[in-house]
Amino acid sequence: MRNMVVAGGQLGPISRDETKASAVNRMIALMHQAASRGAQLIVYPELALTTFFPRWWVENKTDFDHMFEREMPNKDVLPLFEASKKLNIAFHIGYAELTPDGHRYNTAIMVNNFGKIIGKYRKIHLPGHSDNQEWRPFQHLEKYYFEKGNLGFPVFDALDAKIGMCICNDRRWPETWRVLGLKGAELVVLGYNTPLHYPLAPEHDHLQYFHNELSIQAGCYQNGVWSVAVAKAGFEEGCELIGGSLIVAPTGEVIARSQGPDDQIIIAEINLDRCQEIQENIFNFVEHRQPREYSLLTDE
Ligand code: CDV
Question: Residue 288 CB: number of other CB atoms within 10 A?
Fold first, then answer.
């Protein structure tokens, strides 16, 4: 048995004027709770240091450069790295990245319990739009603020596991999970900011929690992987974000779920060897996949 205790550090809303230092302090408090219950890894949400700023249009996108991180760690985030070393716990966090040569990405990193960045992912499926759509009650301008990620879907060795990463909207796409599955992932970590109201199809608003669970459960089951999926939740600057952070087994079963939309941890002990129950049987890729029939999936 390869057992591991994993946690999710769900955050309640972060207001536009909340400092990054304050968000980091909230995450450190959750890290202490998780570590005191034996967690070896804590997963934080997408864009965990700031409010979800792509909900606002600005003519000059550099007006929001203060929402981005130019280096990691930096002085605001360093206390989280130090706490992780002190508490002997790895973490995963999402943030807006501004590279030295001026590229902007919606990024997540995995940091080991020695404070070293051991994995990085830049979001590939960017939802929303790139133009100013004033008719919406709030906008979703990820295509304006970010470029499509250029690091593929990474799987790396950490904590005696093969860990894959994706971010928010990626979780809805079976291709994300299958690529991670084909790369041998055993645990997929992800954070999300999902509005309860979807302006393009408001008749689906009541299904937001269901679609969240459906996507993650299907991804886990169809690839025989564990997942820790973590929300930024609650009423944030007039926009209600779903909670419903989850830990899901390779069988697709939900084994932990957050309650309510505030700062809280979810935690579970998982056995990584259970991936084989699925990967060596119903979804044994070597035995049963028929990739020659799937060429349409990758043709432009
Ligand atoms: N941050 C996101 O990627 N949010 C999308 C919403 C806009 C649908 C999501 O897939 O949850």
Answer: 9
Distance 289 CA to ligand 1 centre (A): 30
168 among known catalytic residues: yes
Q: What is the mean pLDDT of each run of 10 residues along the chain (300 residues)?
A: 97 98 98 98 99 98 97 98 98 98 98 96 98 96 98 96 98 98 98 97 97 98 98 98 98 98 98 98 98 93
Structure tokens at 118: 């051991």
Q: Residue 217 corresponds to which tokens in the numbers above?
A: 């459960």
172 lines ligand 1 (CB under 6 A): yes
Q: Which of 69, 97, 123, 275 is catalytic?
A: 123
Q: Are 6 and 270 in contact, with CB atoms under 8 Å apart?
A: yes
Q: How far is the CA of 38 from the centre of ligand 1 (A)?
A: 31
Give the C-alpha separation, 186 to 278, whole Å.
Answer: 11
In this prediction the pTM is: 0.98
Q: Which of 3.40.50.300, 3.60.110.10, 2.60.40.3230, 3.30.70.330 would CATH assign to domain 3-297?
A: 3.60.110.10
Per the annotation, the verdict on 148 as an active-site residue is no
Report which ligand 1 atom has the smallest distance to the Cα of 192.
Answer: 1
Distances (CA, A) of 170 to 173, 270, 293: 6, 23, 23
CA 88 to ligand 1 centroid distance, Å:
32
20, 46, 97, 236: the catalytic one is 46
